[in-house]
Amino acid sequence: MTDQAPRPEGDIPGKSTAASRTTLSHIMTGSDTNLLGTVHGGVIMKLVDDAAGAVAGRHSGGPAVTASMDEMVFLEPVRVGDLVHVRAQVNWTGRSSMEVGVRVMAERWNESTPAQQVGSAYLVFAAVDADGKPRPVPQVIPETERDKRRYQEAQIRRTHRLARRRAIKELRERRAAEGIED
């Protein structure tokens, strides 16, 4: 299954998934907490967006903006003092868009126990030029079997995003045609 649009001849050479993969690490402090005393989900989401944005910019060779965030999942609470590692990589590319997968890991700053996964997310970025218009991105080249699986899963998520968007648009148009105002 390939939803990737054909690329014109002489277009940008592809890049491997490893070429832009990155990890952002941050120690959580008291200013990051919510009313329950754990790290606020919005703080984690910002770290996720920052890491994903760095990866998207690296992969595309320039500015990229967040278009959507899918499936942000919080698996375990993050606490003050935790060292959080946000790992990101490009999973899929279209003409000007990229899906970036992010895994959030946390470890106690004062313990030697391995980091555990505390969250994950998928974000879509659009590469933009100086005028904010979409610009082409290099095709991502999956290297490992894991990268190939992530690429295929990203295509499924893209198909679902587009189908959901289309269904909502049709519903709104039908309601408007019936004279129902929202």
Share of β-strand residues: 25-35%
Q: How many strands in all?
A: 7
Number of helical segments with 4 or more residues: 2
Approximate shape:
globular
| Percent in helix | 25-40%
Largest sheet data: 5 strands, antiparallel
Low-confidence stretches: 1-9
Secondary structure class reads alpha+beta
Please state the CA-atom Rg, rounded to the nearest Å. 19 Å
Distance between the termini: 38 Å
The pLDDT mean sits at 92
- SSE pattern: EEHEEEEEH
| Order of strands, widest sheet | 2-4-5-6-3
Salient structural properties:
182 residues; alpha+beta; two-stranded parallel sheet
Give a written overview of the molecule:
With 182 residues, this protein is α+β, with helices and mostly antiparallel strands. Helices cover 29% and strands 31% of the residues. It contains two helices and seven strands. The chain has helices at residues 41-60, 145-177; strands spanning 15-16, 22-27, 64-74, 82-93, 97-108, 116-127, 140-141. The strands form two sheets. Strands 2-4-5-6-3 form a five-stranded antiparallel β-sheet. Strands 1-7 form a two-stranded parallel sheet. A hairpin with a 3-residue loop joins strand 4 (82-93) and strand 5. The termini are far apart.
What is the strand and helix layout of this fold?
Elements: E1 15-16, E2 22-27, H1 41-60, E3 64-74, E4 82-93, E5 97-108, E6 116-127, E7 140-141, H2 145-177
Parallel strand pairs: 1-7
Antiparallel strand pairs: 2-4, 3-6, 4-5, 5-6
